């Protein structure tokens, strides 16, 4: 990413004071420009471009930055799948034509693209938990199917994988050269786009990996809550959040007018157009530089796009303020965070298993984790977004372990609610593992304002 992007990302990472501790104005100044003199940028086209995440040349990232006496113990990577074909079509318009085959003479390109395809062709069902084995291992349709990963999506994750390879394998030697299946933990939802994104990242990370050493587990829930998904309070927060969303939309007359105009163009009732979630398809037009569709009644235009995208950004802003989503996020993210700290604690005990964990997931997976960690100001997960937890050991004090949290290559460790305070008392460039553990085991539930002190209680009692 370029420096401007990095700075803007930071502007959007102002820590939220969900917990009791307000961030002092002093610590605020260090991490971001003054919000009074520099209003947050709100350019819907600029935001949309970030969301597309079109692969460019050198990306700067802060993964793996640590003083010499720190040893990398384990890495936990959460990704959103890469660029995909829309999940919805705009009714009564010509089907958007995007080619989902992988070819060298099309942009964006990655030098490992052909090798990736031929390696995938050698894969066998034995590497995948049912029902993943029935999914194609790379996109291949001349006319993309709904939700199919595109070449852009594959290249995004080949790049992610290669970047992580350079840092974690070449520089920090996370895995021994004779790594085995036990060193990895791989999990994906049952969509072809998440499986293929995970494979592309893994291929960039471990080129020409031995198929016998790779096993992808299937995760039925987008929250990765396997075995602990039943949580009535979480659903209550979600319903209230959806109600908030609905009321905000009703208040936006410009948005209603825009949907009305677009509905007229495609000649269907406004309600039906809105239900078809046109922004999903419009974003795909935008990311692929394909003009918006036209009919005999006119064309869907950039102005329509800007209005809907602007509303999305405003919706995210109100979502942060109203905290209903936070309640949903804390309960939704608990099981996967709990699993992650368990995996870290096993690594602390010296076990060499599952020291590289990869979860290939969706925006609805990353978004609650970000909010739960107190990173609500972080941008909505773009295509091929990555959220990484690094676990480190201080060689000078081997009993001390620390974590770093990175979002799209930016170090956000001290923006998390469990480590905002720590920075003031310590010069260490990372956060004690205990802070994260304490947060997941206890403080998450305190932040809910419920009387529950564990997941089960919090899922069954009223909170804020
Ligand atoms: C987008 O498409 C237009 C023409 O349709 C072309 O002039 C422009 O260069 C394209 N932009 C990019 C970034 O490919
Ligand atoms: C949290 O992790 C512990 C240890 O792995 C496990 O026993 C417990 O069931 C988990 N709880 C939840 C709610 O995920």
Automatic annotation (TrEMBL):
Name used for this protein in its record: 2-phosphoxylose phosphatase 1
Protein topology in the membrane: Single-pass type II membrane protein
One term under GO cellular component: Golgi membrane
Family: Belongs to the histidine acid phosphatase family.
UniProt keyword terms in alphabetical order: Glycoprotein, Golgi apparatus, Hydrolase, Membrane, Signal, Signal-anchor, Transmembrane, Transmembrane helix
Known partners and oligomeric status: Interacts with B3GAT3; the interaction increases the 2-phosphoxylose phosphatase activity of PXYLP1 during completion of linkage region formation in a B3GAT3-mediated manner.
Gene: ACPL2
One annotated GO molecular function: phosphatase activity
GO biological process, one term: glycosaminoglycan biosynthetic process
Entry-linked CDD domains: HP_HAP_like
Signal sequence range: 1-19
Main location: Golgi
Domain of life: Eukaryota
Function of the protein: Responsible for the 2-O-dephosphorylation of xylose in the glycosaminoglycan-protein linkage region of proteoglycans thereby regulating the amount of mature glycosaminoglycan (GAG) chains. Sulfated glycosaminoglycans (GAGs), including heparan sulfate and chondroitin sulfate, are synthesized on the so-called common GAG-protein linkage region (GlcUAbeta1-3Galbeta1-3Galbeta1-4Xylbeta1-O-Ser) of core proteins, which is formed by the stepwise addition of monosaccharide residues by the respective specific glycosyltransferases.
Reaction it catalyzes: 3-O-[beta-D-GlcA-(1->3)-beta-D-Gal-(1->3)-beta-D-Gal-(1->4)-beta-D-2-O-P-Xyl]-L-seryl-[protein] + H2O = 3-O-(beta-D-GlcA-(1->3)-beta-D-Gal-(1->3)-beta-D-Gal-(1->4)-beta-D-Xyl)-L-seryl-[protein] + phosphate
Pfam families reported in the protein's UniProt record: His_Phos_2 (PF00328)
Subcellular location: Golgi apparatus membrane
